[in-house]
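Researcher: Here's a chain I'd like modeled. Treat it as a single chain, no partners, no ligands.
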Amino acid sequence: MSKDHSHSSDLRGLSRLTIDAIVGVTKMVEEVNMTILNSTAKWAVPVHKPLSSATSMVYRNIHAITNLVGDGIDSLLTWLTPLLMKNSGWKGRESVLAVLNGVLGDYLEATQNPLTIKMSFRYSGQALSMEKSALAKAIPNLNGRILVLVHGLCMNDLQWRRGEHDHGAALANDCGYTPVYLHYNSGRHISINGREFAEKLETLVLNWPVAVEEIVILGHSMGGMLARSGFHYGSLAGHSWPKKLRKLVFVGTPHHGAPLERGGNWFHVIIGNSAYTAPFSSLGKIRSAGITDLRYGNLLDSDWKDYDRFAHIGDQRTAVPLPPKLQCYAIAATTGKKIGDIKDRLLGDGLVPVESALGRHNNPNLSLAFAAENTHIEYGMNHLDLLNQQAIYQQLVSWLRVRDQVRHGGNRDTGIVK
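Model: Modeled as a single isolated chain. Structure tokens:
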């Protein structure tokens, strides 16, 4: 598909999403008005019934007109597609789509909106075809050491480059890896993305042009959770790639959730307690399945399938320990100058607390057993700084230059690659 055609598809998808949003907000306002009108009945206000009926009729007309306009916009954009194909896409398109998918990705997928990001491996921003000859042509000087980089919520593969630095490209140069970047809809459930990631990684490995010596997965933020989920489902499916995986590196990953999502959950629980404010709780429910998975760190289907994901029911996760035969590493950041100061307690890295990033939990069954030497905390740094600060990169280099001489010796490193 050409970039021009994608641009027209984006416009159609955005128009459809806009119409759906108008309908949704109209319904919400209608509920508020009707709640207020209906509440007057107990005071026997004489205008209650006729006004209530008239209000319902007005909203029915708004719904009908809005949907009619929506169909008209879709038809118009379809007619304009040949003309729009001459236009180029805008520079910010990738970032806008990433945010939109992060916030509404499950909805976009459910409604088959053309703005939905389809999972793929990419290199230099281009989707990779899973054929040996195509991979060899698309990735210059590839070798058997694959570094898979998995981005976080509301982000995309291009955002591994921040400023003039890209962890993947730099590690390719300094440590001899071939980097490939996962691009995915971060608004889907983490377990759904994890299962698809496992399947796509299996296809990539089976079609890699040279023998695969080792795989390393580097996950930033949600990307680390997706990596853990993917390893779980790949192992269950009997895939070959988990046997090639040597290291899992987590950078600012909320293994035990993020306070901001728990705050969002409390918002709609509290506001839903009043008949007058209850319709507004739907605003809190706009956020995607991927976001609500971040409340506690859901990795598996069973963590969410039997529950209302907006209900305040506490942590229902099944424990998923670190793979015992892999070298696993975790980097955390905090805006504070030291652990426990006011910035650290209130903000962590701005999104993820240090304890969550290091996998620590009061419940020993949920706590992740990172070796002390395989963890690192950086101070005076925020969540996005993890992508380009030299202190973080040097820590990655020190870990990834270490080769596993005892392939099944547990979560420790031996030997230095010169």
